[in-house]
Amino acid sequence: MTQELHIVGGGMAGSEAAWQAANAGIRVVLHEMRPKVETFAHQTGNFAEMVCSNSFRSDDDAQNAVGQLHWEMGAADGLIMQTAREHRLPAGGALAVDREAFAQAVTEKLRAHENISFVSEEITELPSSGHWIFATGPLTSQSLGDALREASGQDRLAFFDAIAPIVYADTIDMDIAWRQSRYDKGETEDERTAYINCPMTKDQYEAFIDALLAAEKTEFHAGETAGYFDGCLPIEVMAERGRETLRHGPMKPVGLTNEHDPQVKAYAVVQLRRDNALGTLYNIVGFQTKMKYGAQADVFRMIPGLQDAKFARLGGIHRNTFLNSPTLLDAQMRLKSHPHLRFAGQITGVEGYVESAAMGLLAGRMAAAELQGRELPPPGPDTAMGALITHITGGAEAKTFQPMNVNFGLFPPIDAKGGRRGRKDRYKAYTDRAKETFNQWLADQS
Is 177 labelled a binding residue? Predict the structure, then answer.
């Protein structure tokens, strides 16, 4: 074989694309600029480094669209999902991982693959020939972004993504906080006690909201506008939308009972989720923020149980880049104006680690098939992967296109003959149908 597949970006999507293509017998060259060229968000040169969270979200493949996507990635021998399960941490019904061990394991597996070679360099221009997958993620460099804009004839789109803070576990006051997963979810005691919960009274909540609104925020650069993705809003932006917004979002008190005072229902609850296998680090769930560092420490120490908290990392904010994919990409995830270039991951307009890796999986398999002289159709739109790729390559409205998590709203409706289905029955019908279709898609490739 003389042709190579070049993949730019060693994040979730690029790592998964490389794995899938290499397993198909394709020679892969993986280009990753780190650690030679650093970003403000990454801390290592490892592949698939997680920067915003350590969670792949729900692992329920019967009732949840994200869980169904987990299932499909596992069925397709997905590197990211396989490695995540090897390094999972207790997180109730979610799949959370020890992020450092996870990234190290992904890196070791890729470097051990005989069909993958590596180049540590920054790609600043779009190549004019060859077979390429660009999976440069939300932190696509300015020079490459400019090249994309010139090649596509479209202004690149952007939104702002915020990173949640991480707290040292031994600085959390467990005389105030307690361990419990919402609704006691989980099959083991570790799962049922995976979260640390900090309760607030109404007065404490109101004071916290006042402090959030008054805190000094990060200023945007000239010409930038804050087009936030609703699934990753900074907490102060949520507070600006209404004083009760946080109490019905990341600070909702439902499904939790304070073991220190079971008869008193908390007005609001801040949850922290384990961030490493040792249990020494916890991230504050849903607390992405653009407050300045000094303000963050002051405001977060108003949370009962965190009054003496020390932070391993404070929150931050950065600009994310993504394509107007319904206009620019074909059904094979190729740039219509330059079909030798494929795109994968968050730059295509999917949101989340799982979704990004899934698009890498598809791009890797599609590129491998093309190099072998055939075309691989995407999975049917009634699968989780198929629903996502259908959405980004034509199902979404181009004028209002924004990053999207996988959800059942992207799936073709289920025929509900015989009466309206209950939600649980309807979701189970979606996932049963998706599994059958996805298994057939895999069988057709064998």
Answer: no
